[in-house]
Amino acid sequence: MIIFPDLNLLGTGLITWILLGYILGSIPFGLVLAQLMGLGNLREVGSGNIGATNVLRTGSKKAAALTLILDAGKGALAVLIAQNTASESAGQIAGLAAMLGHCYPVWLRFKGGKGVATLLGIFLALNVQIGLACCATWLATTVVMRISSLSALVAVLSVILWIMIFAKPSLIGLSIPLIALICWRHRKNIQRLLAGIEPKIGR
Fold it and tell me: Residue 176's CB: how many other CB atoms inside 10 A?
């Protein structure tokens, strides 16, 4: 139930996986792609966020799709490297650190993304069934509701359900801080959703 029950991860091992996850997670792919593809300064577009949803506001579906894939990929890569080198516990630590790196990258004065794609990548690496179920939840909600933030929140909150269905209680300890972090990062979206003024995709 806890994030890192492996006592061997204390000390140097723990620091290694935290640093690995944080550095990978802090790569701002949305910002980099916007610059490379001539889409301008992403900080001056829409919400100023570095994630795929804001990249889409530049008008480039290709750049948005690449941002989504790469942001998910960096979370998955951090988990897979730590998991295959050490243990599942190391993978969980690296995944949590990757999420913190994405949301609070030191290179961008700790002003990063909201972490949904990275979370999906983390769970795809930890358990492909749970990861795919979360992705399907996100996609289904997007198709029906057409509200990006709502789709993200529903997918993230569904993690607990899928963990229970696929009987992976060892992931509960990791899921709670990740869900809390994403809800915090979406706090303004939640306020707009409750007020009924959150814009739909394409508007």
Answer: 14
